[in-house]
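Batch 3, record 17
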Amino acid sequence: MTTAVAVAPPSPPIKGSPMSTNETGGRLNVPGTPIFDGQTSRRGLRLNKMLMSFRSAENRERFSADEAAYCAEFQLAPEQTQAVLDRDWTAMIDLGGSIFYVYKLAMMDGRSMQYLGGVFTGMTEEEFLAELRAGGRRG
Amino acid sequence: MAGVAEVIWGLATSHVPSIGAAMDRGKTEDPNWKDLFDGYAPARQWLAQHEPDVAIVVYNDHANGLDLDIVPTFGIGTADHYRVADEGYGPRQVPDVIGDPDLSLHLLESLVDENFDLTVFQELEVDHGLTVPLSVWTPDPGDAWPCPVVPILVNVIQYPQPTAARCYALGQALGRAIRSYGEDVTVGILGTGGMSHQLAGARAGFINPEFDAMWLEKIHTDPAALAALSREELIREAGSEGIELIMWLIMRGAMADEVTKVHSHYFLPASNTAAGIALFDNRAPQPA
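Prediction for the assembled complex:
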């Protein structure tokens, strides 16, 4: 499937207080668990479309050459652009990023899913990995 | 004379990308991986002696073959060829997947007639969700996988995912659709994903071995009990990504009520995930 550049007008800043990863806007509330539901996906559509574009080597190079311009091309909201530029992984999730899409940026940076897990849980990658090897974390 | 298609086995397996990466990079003897691959060996041995004419792989895409513009709850590939996707670091060096459009179109029509309105994929690139299970089955495919494949896709990424009950019912309809195919072919069916894991949020790294043990037991003996679990229960007990275990129920639904377990194995962690495998023989037990 091709990933077309978004054609909708630039999106306004996302209103309201920042979403915590426990507030999904959906019906489910599982502590510490972001639910990627329809409202989240609406909020994150442009961000996720940009992240999807990293499937192509050419797009990866264009992004790396000028990250802010590339974000502008996909008409990300200002907070989304900032989260991408800052590699604020938690904010990307809170602003509608799907972990499978966000991971594509992490891979470009040479970051592992265990590194991201450490960021989400306030641990180093090594500490997070040690918890997994000890049988995983309990909720 | 018309033949009869028959499901000869069902294989449930995790599809963690790092399992494929460990194989692709020759790390299967690494101490962090060896137990996983040792655990696959008996299943692989049995599968090598029971090669089907065609396989159905129930899987989900991960932002590779489709994006979030269109989120089909259930889909089926009808192509004769599925390219291996570039997931962001170049495609896995494994064979492309050969399809079986005749079987795909038969299954589609039968399922639509049973009110399962699957989205049709005439073109589809397949990602680790499909190729890792094929590698779990066939570690060294050479130039080609053992047989043609029909992909069945399930949305497990964006809430609301289909219910476990709906997946089980789809599997039962799929079983009827296979049995009504007027060709004398043997079918292997793979249900993929899981087991418990969660990738994002403060609960990232969540794994639930007790739930996984229960699931491994009941997928064999009492799948209807698993089909009764709610979406919320699945996310709570198996993690926000562990809900993808619902795809095992499509495989199980397509099989007989009574099946014989050939092998199962449980391992953690594969990347951030508890990895399970369960292989079932669908043929009636032969008298000793």
